[in-house]
Amino acid sequence: MRPRVGVAGLGHWGRNLVRNFDELAELRLLCDVSSELRESFSVRYPNARVTERYDDLLEDPELDAVVVATPVPTHYDLARRALAAGKHVFVEKPPAVRADEMEEMVALAESNGLVLMPGHLLLYHPAVRKLKELVDGGELGEVLCVYGNRQNLGIIRKEENALLSLGVHDLSVILYLVGEEPSEAWAHGNAFLNPGVEDVVFCYLRFPSGKIAHMHLSWLDPHKMRKITVVGKEKMVVFDDMELERKVTVYEKAPWLPAETYGEWQTRTGDIFSPKIPNDEPLRLECQHFLRLVEGDGDPLAAARDGLAVVRTLEQLQASLTS
Ligand SMILES: NC(=O)c1ccc[n+]([C@@H]2O[C@H](COP(=O)([O-])OP(=O)(O)OC[C@H]3O[C@@H](n4cnc5c(N)ncnc54)[C@H](O)[C@@H]3O)[C@@H](O)[C@H]2O)c1
After folding, report:
1. How do 220-232 and 116-119 pair as beta strands?
2. By 3-state DSSP, what share of the chain in percent is helix, strand and coil, each rounded to 5?
3. Could you tell me the distance, in angstroms and rounded to a whole number, from the CA of residue 131 to the centre of ligand 1?
4. CA spacing 20 to 30 A to 120: which of 26, 148, 227, 280?
């Protein structure tokens, strides 16, 4: 039997999750505080029950899993309550804004034998998987630095700053690629439009191995960029999510120390090529992964532990941003 799933939060992102879980699982309950959304979803998904009460999901003994796609400040409370009620949980990013909240949820999931998975979408992107393969396979040589660019003009948010809204994506990828937690995490930025909500944020991370990383996050920018660059000692690679076909480009460019220059570094450049990247929808892969975990296939808490490292780093970045 397919897992029975309930989704809370039917907004811009929630509707994509609903579409996928309707196709991949038994969509049983849909919850939103907006009556307009409840009405339109009840027409589109007549087999699911629609409710305003989140507790209806928790009280349904037949429901296996709860998907939380509500605004960020509600994530921890809703996800924690679902775990306490014995439901597997998929919670949109960031799953919490404080590390102690996330630690509590991981412990609760573990003691109740439940899946807890934060919605780090990019980790399921075939291009990010390719980056990881290139890094772990040693093709790039020693990784020196990684940086993310996530900029655009808009959407100007009023509740979450650019770090929370945009940075979680890049941060989850950077930690995944580097495979370490940073020993230093600094963020600088400014709230130009809405008081207390930083529109432009620059982050710096340093890892115990000496690798460094940077993130430029902004909704006040002339460029629409969704890019992650990894600089290795042998090759460099760029994942550009704005490209339709050439999502990943590998550059045979590197520093070079020829014997005859007696310790003076030079550079060399070679071929540039783009490996084929499968066209699969990352969100679909992410939902399939969650359902496999719910069905008992895989480590139910691996993603949550990675999510804890992301929340821990976010908390440090946020603290330095506002200090
Ligand atoms: N993974 C991704 O790429 C990605 C992309 C966009 C958004 N998101 C995440 O998805 C979440 C939702 O973002 P969005 O853009 O859809 O926001 P949104 O404001 O469009 O939707 C949120 C919905 O939640 C509902 N809601 C609020 N409190 C609720 C409650 N207590 N119970 C039930 N419903 C409640 C609201 O009425 C609204 O319909 C955010 O956490 C965001 O970070 C993830």
Report:
1. unpaired
2. 40, 30, 35
3. 29
4. 26
CA dist list (Å): 110 to 86, 113, 194, 249, 265: 11, 5, 39, 40, 51
CA 76 to ligand 1 center in whole angstroms: 13
Backbone angles phi, psi at 319, to 5 degrees: -65, -40
What crossing angle do the helices spanning 126-136 and 168-178 adopt, rounded to 10°?
Answer: 30
Predicted local confidence at residue 1, as pLDDT: 85
Burial of 217 (0-12, 13-18, 19+ CB in 10 A): buried
Cα(241) to ligand 1 centroid in Å equals 23
Model confidence band, residue 322 (pLDDT cutoffs 50, 70, 90): confident
Residue nearest to atom 39 of ligand 1 (CA): 11
For the record, the structure tokens of 237 come out as: 């690679």
Kindly report the pTM of this predicted structure.
Answer: 0.96
Q: What is the best residue among 18, 19, 29, 33 to mutate for testing ligand 1's pocket, by most ligand atoms within 8 Å of CB?
A: 33
CA dist 79 and 90 (Å) reads 8
Of 12, 90, 155, the residue with max ligand 1 atoms within 8 A of its CB, to mutate for a pocket test, comes to 12
Please give the structure tokens belonging to residue 47: 């087999």
Residue list, ligand 1 pocket, CB within 6 Å: 8-14, 31-34, 37, 54, 69-72, 74, 92-93, 119, 121
Per-residue model confidence as pLDDT tens digits over 130-168: 999 999 999 999 999 999 999 999 999 988 899 999 999
